[in-house]
Each structure stands twice: as structure tokens, then as C-alpha cells.
Fold:
Amino acid sequence: MKDLVEYVVKSLVEAPDEVSIDEFEESDETVLELTVAGSDMGRVIGKSGRVINAIRTLAQVSAAKQGKRVSVELVETGDR
Structure:
């Protein structure tokens, strides 16, 4: 799941080397915290959040095939 999300996000942004994903286990689900460069936030979020919601859906489908649950959170960094 982490690799899938990382591949999709790096394909979207202008600074793929600044993409990082931290993976945490919380109770019954995996949490993926996605961090991108401040200038790429708009690209990842998309209009009305469509792009990030599509990324979340892809991760959830991938996790469901493995019998797991996942959530993707976009973390805002201080630099803009």
C-alpha cells in the first residue's frame, strides 16, 4: 500500500524527492502520513479534494484485497 501511494504521488508532483510517507499501526488500521513540498500541496489535493480522495480510494482498495484497513493523511509542512 505504501509503495502504491508513493508511486502515484511521486508521479503527480514537481519535487518527487521531497515526498515522504510514514507508516503507523493504530488499533485495527494502518495510517499513512503523506508529506510533500509546500508548492506541491495543491497538486496532491486537487480541485475540491478529488486527487487526494482518489489516492485514498486506491489505498483502501489495495488494503481491502489484503484484508486490512488503511487511511491516508496529508500532513501540512511549515514551508510554503
